[in-house]
């Protein structure tokens, strides 16, 4: 199931709402551009006057004066055009920045379960390809559409003012444009969608072959992969031919419609001049306007085409904000640190519960180990206890308030999940630590690193907290990355921690060192440890045995061993290993 896409109406209302924030700037761009266009329109007008003056007889001084005025007009027009372009580009950048920030805020608050169900590929496609397409449209398209449409409008108005009868010739291309563009728009969007889908498939096939080249080689799949690739290329080729044919036909008819007004202005003008209905100068003016408006109409239509692609991307981008939130802060505040799960059920897919009415009462300050066979539901229970997903049934509460009723930032100050994924974000070490507590002082961050036994390597960093880390910066080892994550927990300071296989992926030496760091972090907190090595269970205050989504045994290690049940069997077999 993919993330939703917004319908045309939503795209329209959201785009207008976005543009509304820039009403002032938009008006400024249009006004400056209109002034530039008026200056540009003065040229044909003055040239028309010149032709008339020469035709009826005039002085050299008049021609010189008009020449000077023409130079002045060109200068003013260039200056105004420059300002109009600059303002339009700044506006484009600001609109795009706003769109991107809003989108990022939405994406980072998406319910995890929805992203997991949709697959990260869809979201990544939207945050990269679609954002790029919009960027192109907003940065260059929006300013150019403003510029070209205001120029076209003013040219037509100026032509009508200069000589209404002759200006009629400008309209002859319109029926052809309307028919060609309407036909094109009808087929363009589905054709472009098919085209991008075909290229996405081709990309997938190529990436798969390259990424798994050794497997392809080992199993002798070369010929088969080539056949699949050829098919994908053929499909991409076919869709590309369709879109190209579409464009060639469109641009042929547009070319005709652009040339037609110039020819019409000359023929119609000549006919009118012969009958003394208009002057030669008026015909010159209109013919020049017809020439002048051509590139603008052509550019506007180019952007109309690009707009189709951008609108498809916008509907995918706005679609992300249509995802229903999986929680809403109720405003209730927990009055203690007691976490309790009551009749918790959870289904990743509707109708297939992986947890069945789980009850668990955590004693504040205790260490609880969760053990059980693979796929029993341990991690899912851990995620429920940390408030990552809202349960499908039942509730997990802290101080009687459901975890999912707390604002996200409050939730993390109560309970946090520690997994083996420790991403180091691009930025400084301080940026990475402040993710947990934005207001943390350098001293607090240093103390947090000290608490997790990281001062050794930290002391060797020349720039200390200001060291750039993450991809492209100083490379941190997996153990160091994990210590940064643990230092973040110290800063976050939740009273309860859920550890999911926190140290299992590291080599034993690093793991022992990290366990020391970890125990410093765990001191004084309630801890739920999802245990894969039973010695964690042995050291815990209580052990919960999960099987098929149920807690089947719960109690201290000694009691469970004495009871000779599931846990005792696991314990004995682990000891024998
Ligand atoms: N994101 C997911 N989407 C769909 N099903 C899932 C997802 N994550 C887990 N499951 C399923 O839920 C059940 C419980 O999985 P869970 O990871 O909670 O078990 P576990 O006891 O932690 O297993 P392990 O020790 O192997 O990690 C399994 O059947 C698993 O296939």
Automatic annotation (TrEMBL):
A Pfam family that this protein carries is ABC_membrane
**Which PROSITE patterns does this chain map to?**
ABC_TM1F, ABC_TRANSPORTER_2
Its cellular-component GO annotations read: plasma membrane
Swiss-Prot/TrEMBL keywords: ATP-binding, Cell inner membrane, Cell membrane, Membrane, Nucleotide-binding, Transmembrane, Transmembrane helix, Transport
| Single GO MF annotation | ABC-type oligopeptide transporter activity
Q: Where are the transmembrane segments?
A: 26-47, 53-76, 142-161, 167-185, 250-271
Record flagged with keyword Coiled coil: no
Origin, by domain of life? Answer: Bacteria
InterPro entries per the record? AAA+_ATPase, ABC1_TM_dom, ABC1_TM_sf, ABC_transporter-like_ATP-bd, P-loop_NTPase, Type_1_exporter
- Family matches, as SUPFAM superfamilies: ABC transporter transmembrane region, P-loop containing nucleoside triphosphate hydrolases
Topology relative to the lipid bilayer, per the entry, is: Multi-pass membrane protein
Where would I find the ABC transmembrane type-1 domain in this sequence? 29-308
Coiled-coil stretches are none
Can you say where in the cell this protein is located? Cell membrane
The ABC transporter domain sits at 339-573
Protein name, UniProt field: ATP-binding cassette domain-containing protein
Species name: Georgenia subflava
Phylogenetic classification of the source organism: Bacteria, Bacillati, Actinomycetota, Actinomycetes, Micrococcales
């Amino acid at each position: 199931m993919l993330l939703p896409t917004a319908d045309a109406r939503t795209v329209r209302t959201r785009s207008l709402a976005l543009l509304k924030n820039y009403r002032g700037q938009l008006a400024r761009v249009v006004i400056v551009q209109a002034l530039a266009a008026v200056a540009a329109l003065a040229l044909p007008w003055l040239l028309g006057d010149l032709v008339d003056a020469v035709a009826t007889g005039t002085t050299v001084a008049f021609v010189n004066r008009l020449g000077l005025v023409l130079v002045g007009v060109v200068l003013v027009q260039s200056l105004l055009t420059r300002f109009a372009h600059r303002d339009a580009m700044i506006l484009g950048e600001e609109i795009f920045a706003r769109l991107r920030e809003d989108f990022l805020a939405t994406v980072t608050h998406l319910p995890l379960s929805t992203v997991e169900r949709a697959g990260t590929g869809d979201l990544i496609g939207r945050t990269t390809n679609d954002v790029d397409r919009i960027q192109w449209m907003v940065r260059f398209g929006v300013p150019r559409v403003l510029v070209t449409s205001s120029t076209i409008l003013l040219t037509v108005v100026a032509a009508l003012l200069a000589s209404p009868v002759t200006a009629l010739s400008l309209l002859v291309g319109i029926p052809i444009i309307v028919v060609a563009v309407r036909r094109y728009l009808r087929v363009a969007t589905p054709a472009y969608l098919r085209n991008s889908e075909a290229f996405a498939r081709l990309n997938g096939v190529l990436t798969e072959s390259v990424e798994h080249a050794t497997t392809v080689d080992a199993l002798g799949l070369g010929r088969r992969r080539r056949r699949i690739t050829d098919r994908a290329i053929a499909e991409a080729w076919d869709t590309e031919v369709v879109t190209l044919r579409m464009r060639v036909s469109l641009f042929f008819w547009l070319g005709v419609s652009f040339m037609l007004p110039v020819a019409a202005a000359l023929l119609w003008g000549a006919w009118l001049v012969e009958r003394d209905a208009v002057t030669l100068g008026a015909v010159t003016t209109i013919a020049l306007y017809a020439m002048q408006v051509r590139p603008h109409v052509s550019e506007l239509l180019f952007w109309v085409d690009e707009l189709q692609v951008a609108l498809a991307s916008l509907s995918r981008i706005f679609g992300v904000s249509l995802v229903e939130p999986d929680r809403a802060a109720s405003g209730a505040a927990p009055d203690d640190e007691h976490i309790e799960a009551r009749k918790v059920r959870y289904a990743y897919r509707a109708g297939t519960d992986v947890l069945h009415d789980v009850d668990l009462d955590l004693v504040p300050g205790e260490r609880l180990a969760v053990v059980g066979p693979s796929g029993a539901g341990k991690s899912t229970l851990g995620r429920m206890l940390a408030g990552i997903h809202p349960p499908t049934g039942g509730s997990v509460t802290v101080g009687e308030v459901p975890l999912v009723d707390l604002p996200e930032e409050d939730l993390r100050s109560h309970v946090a999940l520690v997994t083996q994924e420790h991403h180091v974000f691009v930025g400084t070490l301080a940026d990475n630590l402040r993710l947990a507590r934005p207001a943390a002082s350098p001293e607090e961050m240093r103390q947090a690193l000290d608490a997790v036994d990281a001062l050794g390597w930290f002391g060797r960093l020349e720039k200390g907290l200001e060291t750039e880390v993450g991809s492209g910066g100083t490379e941190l080892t997996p153990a160091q990355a994990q210590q940064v994550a643990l230092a973040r927990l110290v800063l976050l300071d939740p009273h309860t921690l859920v550890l999911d296989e926190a140290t299992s992926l590291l080599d034993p030496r690093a793991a022992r060192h990290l366990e020391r760091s970890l125990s410093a972090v765990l001191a004084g907190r309630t801890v739920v440890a999802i245990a894969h090595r039973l010695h964690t269970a042995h050291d815990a205050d209580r052990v919960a045995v999960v099987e098929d989504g149920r807690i089947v045994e719960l109690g201290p290690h000694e009691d469970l061993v004495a009871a000779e049940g599931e846990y005792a069997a696991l314990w004995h077999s682990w000891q024998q290993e």
